[in-house]
User: Fold these one by one.
Assistant:
Number 1:
Amino acid sequence: MSTGLPQASAKSQIFEALLGFLPDWVQITVIALIVLAVVASWAVKIKRKIAYRRAVRGGQPVHAAARYGQGRGADYLGEYAPPPAQSAAQPSGADFLGAYAPQRSGTDGPAPGTSA
């Protein structure tokens, strides 16, 4: 037999079970602190978004950590990021040995892989 009233969700039942044994003034305080935490997180998020938009609109360079939605996570390198755009004249990569390349002397003959 249905009364037409919606049933309480599992979340609300768990919440009531956790707070149900506490006095009313504690329940109200806990609920107020939860609401305050949610509102504070929204305020911080909105503040960061406004600061980012002002910086972009003003033509100021936006630091990578200050970009909205950036500055954290597995792909964020922060201070460990490589310096910006090195010159193309400097070779790099897995095959470039630099100072660790073997030195050839003229008395050894032709280099391996070359015809004499």
Note: Residues 24-57 form the longest helix (34 residues).
Number 2:
Amino acid sequence: MSSGTGITDADGHPVAVTITAGGPAPRDPAGPAPAAPEAGSVPPPRIGIRLTPQTGELVWSCTPEAARELAAELLRAAEETENAPAGHPVTVEAGRLRRGDVRDGDRAMTVESARTDGSTVHVTWKSGAGRTWTQAYAADAAIALKRRLPEGR
């Protein structure tokens, strides 16, 4: 990972992020020395995480299990943020639906594909539970969307 990840500090400045497998991120020689391990002990494998904002540097490490838990929480938060309702739904014609569009409503329904056949559009939806089904719409039918992905994504 690098500073191009979109991670910023509280003031919106980019933060460089370095992830290292197999141990903590390399230590700054000017920083404090790490604690000495107990004699005869083998330290568990670690993942190193270094954040370098403008104000200094943060170096953390965690077990692979904790890294997976963090990744799962980040993924959950990303999906929740992306699926949060906008201030108002966007309405598009069925013929303009794109993969990734999310239908407005109580349950998450995401466009998997949309195929036009004359004046009919066949939309394959995928539920939050992973079920898929196809519905046919008139090409000019208004479909309310909760979220629309940017073009080209």
Note: The chain has a mean pLDDT of 81.
Number 3:
Amino acid sequence: MTVLSHTHPLAAQLENDLLPLFRAALPQLSAAAPQVLASVFAFSSGSADAFQAYHLGISCLLDNVADDQPEEVALLVSAAGLDADLDAGVQLSAQVVWGQPSGAVEVQADMPPADVAALHAALPGLLAALGAAARRGTPRL
């Protein structure tokens, strides 16, 4: 459990729902892309206070990458607006994104605000896209 889980119920729900799913996906990712070091992450962020947003996902670090190519591709799930008084202010987003210098978005899920069911529905496609990107080893052109 991370630091934010005790301050917002959506963060706790995301941790309980997604972190075990992400951990279970690691062996398949490693088998499909042996050049990748995959790990699960979770952290909070914010400019005014550390509890404005919560992020979790899977990071895939690539081996033997050219200097001008990204070394990481990740499935990133974010909940923003956690400091708002109403859950209606919470925005969920999920995407497979490349690290710098690319920053390219491989695929992004479109979801209504705070719709955890839509997030769950999008996860199989996002996990598949992460696996394909990790096997390919470079952003799509």
Note: Helices lie at 9-32, 116-136.
